[in-house]
Queue: 4 jobs
Job 1
Amino acid sequence: MRQWSLFFYFCCTFVFLCILPILVAQQDLCKNEADISAFHQINQNHQQDPTHNPDFDTMLSNCLKQQVIPTPDYVSWCCQTTMKISQPCASCCGWATNCVVANCKWPCTFQSADACQNCFVQYCTPGYNTCVGYDPDLQ
């Protein structure tokens, strides 16, 4: 009986952490004027003084690192307040949290920052870009 309960737990956890985040990614949540302006301001500040003004990736990474096991709600709130973006747009940061927890726990916890970044790029960037409405082919 215990084997079945462990199997059920594993299957539910896998679906929740690995499959569900992929299926529920929203689209184009950051394409309003206020969010676009906020992202431009972040980039402009970073270009003027990179030492004191982090870029977007660093800001998201800092929000992810503030908890031992980051929760989507906390990371969304952190992104919203630090980046000055809307709640729907910040929910993409929450989506990224689910993706990191599902796919990048090992490299982000026990390996280098580069390994974590590479994992994020491989597994989470496409879905994150869809969520925020970023198309690298158009840039």
Job 2
Amino acid sequence: MPTSAKNGSLKEFTLALALLTALLSGCAQSNATGVPDVRREERALNEGKHMSHAKIDAIVVTCMDWRLFRPEESLLPKFLSGIGVAHYDLRTQQGCAKDICCGGHDIVASMVQAVKIAHDLHGARRVVLLGHTDCGYYGGSKSFGSSAEEMETYRSDLGMAATAIAKEFPDMRVDRYIAVLGDPGDGSAIEFVEAAERVAVPARQG
């Protein structure tokens, strides 16, 4: 093959390789929806990098129920501000505590990873668990014999979830609350109640 042809083929190959590298780099930074790739944060976590500019007060774990997120009422931000949480990472999980204490390994591992990122990358030293009444993941209020039974079930599950998180992260404060909603189908929370005192777990024995 003539030298000029070889040079031309080499240039085309080099250009194609550069284009492929650029495309792969872009895919690593975001997916098709523009959401940052979690794997990049995980790599930063593994490499011990810290985002000092992104310090937060807590990671908030709550249910995905739309009634907690009505923008015209700003229920969640108002509540969190009232307990000293202005800046936070938000993790929504159906049923909140139920999946943490009773879910499969993959769900629990994903939750632990979310808390670890908030802890190591964003400086969080507090977890806020927020359940709510009439939760569809439990079958709604109608699935309980009484409101007292419903509240006790949420308190129990939140307690188990808080204990599990505190064991993994003994330097984090874990608070738990229940949003008491109005009548089923009502879009407003009428009260936020503290489910229990924060969980304190003894440090691991080394």
Job 3
Amino acid sequence: MPTSAAERKRKSREHMAALKAREKAEKLRLRKKKSREHAKKSSEKAENQTLKRKERDETNRIKRQQPTISEEQFLSQAMKEQVIKNFELAMKLIKHKHCTSCKMVSLTMEMSNIPNICKECHSKKCTEDYWLDNNMLPVWYDENNQVHYERPKCLKNLYDAEKMLIQ
């Protein structure tokens, strides 16, 4: 038997009310969940601060207990000279690494098995042309259309404010 228009309206209103009630319950559930998460984060933050404070206090307590050592007692002259020599030797062994593709220079750059190419350029299969074509390197061209990576002579004696304007 077909239902009347009034009956359909009533069912529609009941359905809408049920949907709104579900929506309201879901919002309430989400608010409670956020509130619990916030309370948990606040508790963790307070706990971390307490731990840091305890560590700092313990470090200060240990420092106060340590006897002070004069420089003469700490290292003899021969030991000082050896430490300095070791440091100088270590500094001589440090070499800058230079990638010919992206022009990056670093002490800690990891190089690929291809000479003078960093691992990042090797993994992306980048060439110097890739960096130039995508305007990713600060370069300028002379009248012969040759690429230059160094600063032009006319820009070397700029004031800081002028340099910032160019950037």
Job 4
Amino acid sequence: MSQDWIQRPGRSVVHGVPEGFDALLLTRAAGELAARQRPVLHVARDDARLARLAEAIGFFAPETDLLAFPAWDCLPYDRVSPNSQLVSRRLDTLTRLASPVVEVGRPRIVVTTVAAITQRVPSRKLLGPAVKRLRVGDQIDADELIGFFQGNGYTRADTVREPGEYAVRGGIIDVYPAGLAEPLRLDLFGDTLEALREFDPMSQRSTGKRDAVDLKPASEILRPRSCSTRGRSSASAPAIARCSVPRPPTIRSTRRSAPATSTSAWSTGCRCSTSSSKPCSTTCRAPR
């Protein structure tokens, strides 16, 4: 097969490569384009094919910077959220693609699926401020760090076991950032970060040390810093008015076509019977 398309300027689309040989072709193309810092993107048909392709690329070229971007394991607006490990892999890939820092000369291959590229993702403007770098010896404000976790989709837990969780116990903060195989334990002495230790999420025992870490968001639903959530103090009201992010309609507005009795019950959260016109209890005050 001719590989003139590798040296061709601009974007090239290659298809019809036999399964099994495509991994070798991708690694060769990535090696040729590494000097120009041009990554290679491959779109697989499904997650099973993506997993086999990633394994083959690791066999042919283990030095390649391989970024996998799988699709959600649930449908949009489903009752079940995507798996936390899967979301962690997606966010790790997105933040690394958004970062302008690329190791010169190292091949990079991005593998994804048809379903994954049809989903909307956060913009670069939102992903950039959502990454926080910590180094041993840095001065850290614990309250500011907790605010960073809360604003980027992390969930507070008693014990950190899954990606996207964090726990606070005095001067020790446990967190499971995206892109890491194991969670981290931040050991603070006052405002100084004394140590970064990896630990096993099941036994909670330390397994290694790190000098630095990039804390990445734990959720793909990110909002600009100028936006505030509804229900906070009145001081955040101007920020809410300026926010351009659309809010979902309330239950009352989505059920205007329903009868008046059921609309009142939905809007107030009443679980009483709607067969009578008498007022409800003093707690609910919704008409029955």
